[in-house]
Amino acid sequence: MKKNIKIVYRAFWCLFGLWALSTVLPLRFDITEDKLYSLSPATHNILQQLQPRVRVKLYWSRSVSGAPQDFKNHGQRIADILAEYQSKSSGNLSVEVIDPIPLSRFEDEAFAAKLDPRWIDEEPLFLGAVFEQGKMQKKITFFTPEREAYIEYDISQTLAQITKDQPTKLRLLSSYDLEKDKRWSFIAVLKQVYDLGILDYNKTRVIPDDTDVLFVFHPHKISIAVEYAIDQFIMKGGRVLLAVDPFARESLENLAELGAVPTLIPDVSSTLPNIIGAWRLIYDPKRVVSDHELSTIIDSGVGRVGYPFMISLAADQMGSDSVVSADLKSFLYSEGGGFWLDENTTLQLTPLMETSQRTGFLEARKAGFTKASGLLLDVEVSGGVYTLAGILSGVLPSGFAGVPEQITNGSPHLLQSQRSTEIILIADTDFLADRNYLSSQNGRSGAVKPIRDNFDFLLNAIDYLGGDERMLGIRGRQLTRPFTRKREIQEKARQLWKKKFTELTEDIYATQTKISQIKQKIPAHGVFELNPAQAQALKVHQEKLGQLKISKRRVFRTMHEKIDELENKLIVFNLLLVPLPLVFLALIFFYLRQLRDRRQKALALIVVEGENIG
């Protein structure tokens, strides 16, 4: 027994010594299944080159009562990863975690930095970061849970951007006159975010060498000379975002032409015939793809029908493995085409958006008919999954065997790209038309809001291509644990409190309506006041509104407290799930060992007694 006590005593002091050592030495071990807290070699490279020092302020509302447990856990993970950045930066990066308590100066700082909080019953929840290096400042307005797999990418990209002297140099080449056409408001935003230069669509012979990203948008009837300029830019390792379209509806100046006979509708397609053909990328500029599972409901003139040539994509149809499309939730793909690679190629096409299995193709000009019901009769559902947008990667071949006769710039012809490069492709251009992703807000003229993530896709693509080359080594982490039980707990608690929460919300709305009705009786110039009865009624309703809001906040907090309580029980259960069986097995082992020792002692006594008798 004394021997066993000594073993336990020594084990205790060994564990205590290891704990004490860990508090002194900067040792960190990532034992998570997906290595969530381990930084990639590319990030280590970026951290070692941070000069001068970068300061990061993480604004995290961790003390707000009623905040969901998911938010707290997500915020803790962000803080832990930033701490890992700091520990691996060799002093080049410092991290400060700030809790912007409501009505504090830190909350004022967070709002002044234009961070984007989420609101919980009129209380802001911040989880954003400000990166400062000298006079340069970048920010991540909110670490969304949807991009949890790309936290390292987002942080490292921001660090790479803040160390750049100039913004990304974006050059735009398009058959559209986008600056004068009011249907394309995205161009104004690009001017604010990037160093945007618009190249002459007809006269460009060489893409400027300082171009970070070339955006080729609807190359309609492109000349050989301009296509060759694009080709050689790619051969030099240039990065290109290419948007082509078999039926660019926005190109039709007179929409009345859509009711004409198909042969009279002008050709509004676009492609890079020589370049795309050399890549063995199959894309038909004369046919639009249809998806009968993801069709968009439209008014056909004879009723509302599903129009399969306008494809409504949700998160499930957009690649979660790429930072370009990981956080997109909604996208309208309007009368575009499809891509796929020839089998005899070494290039790789990584889908960013895909169709379902229920697909077909139709001649592009027939898609110009406004009667969607008539079009459905002409489409055969042949099946097959097609790439709508993707990343083409590898050593790309030139689309030209030599320098075209009309080119006289004297530069040597390159037959293949000087290194493995990436091109982002999409077979639709109408997705950037305002009507396909913006909507008037509250019916007010000039006030619009995004209703789909079409423009976010464009920004993500440009940021990906224009990022530091060191970023190419950083990819998203595959989060494999589903936490299904946790979701069940959350949903159960929400259902229990949903009825009360809904009742209070309806009472608040009704009371606000009554207050508005009373206030409407006061003229805009305020010549007369309310009579005593009206004033008393207004006072009663305002007091009731205040009490209802307080009650709603209490219910909301109670609901989340119950969720936290249930989750904490689950955590305790998970923590005890492994050690309790081990303790039980250890007790059994100890009991069996004691039983064996007793038997051995009993046998020894029997032997001794037998010898004495003998």
What is the typical, i.e. mean, pLDDT?
A: 78
Which radius of gyration do the C-alpha atoms yield?
A: 32 Å
Sequence stretches where pLDDT stays below 50 over 5 or more residues: 22-27, 29-35, 254-258, 442-447, 478-484
DSSP helix fraction:
25-40%
DSSP E strands, number: 22
Q: Strand arrangement, largest sheet?
A: 8-7-9-10-20-19-17
The oligomerization state is single chain
- Approximate strand percentage: 15-25%
Distance between the termini: 32 Å
Shape: globular
Provide a descriptive summary of the structure in words.
- With 614 residues, this protein is of the alpha/beta class.
- The protein has 13 helices and 22 strands.
- The chain has helices at residues 2-24, 41-48, 69-87, 105-112, 151-162, 186-193, 224-235, 273-278, 372-376, 454-466, 484-519, 532-577, 579-613, and strands spanning 54-60, 93-98, 118-120, 123-125, 127-133, 136-140, 169-174, 195-198, 213-217, 239-243, 281-282, 287-291, 295-299, 304-314, 330-334, 340-341, 348-354, 359-363, 387-394, 421-426, 438-440, 448-450.
- A seven-stranded mixed sheet has the order 8-7-9-10-20-19-17, covered by helices on one side. The protein has a four-stranded mixed sheet with strand order 2-1-5-6, covered by helices on one side.
- Strand 5 and strand 6 form a beta hairpin.
- The longest helix is centred in the last third of the chain and has 46 residues, at 532-577.
- 30% of the residues are buried.
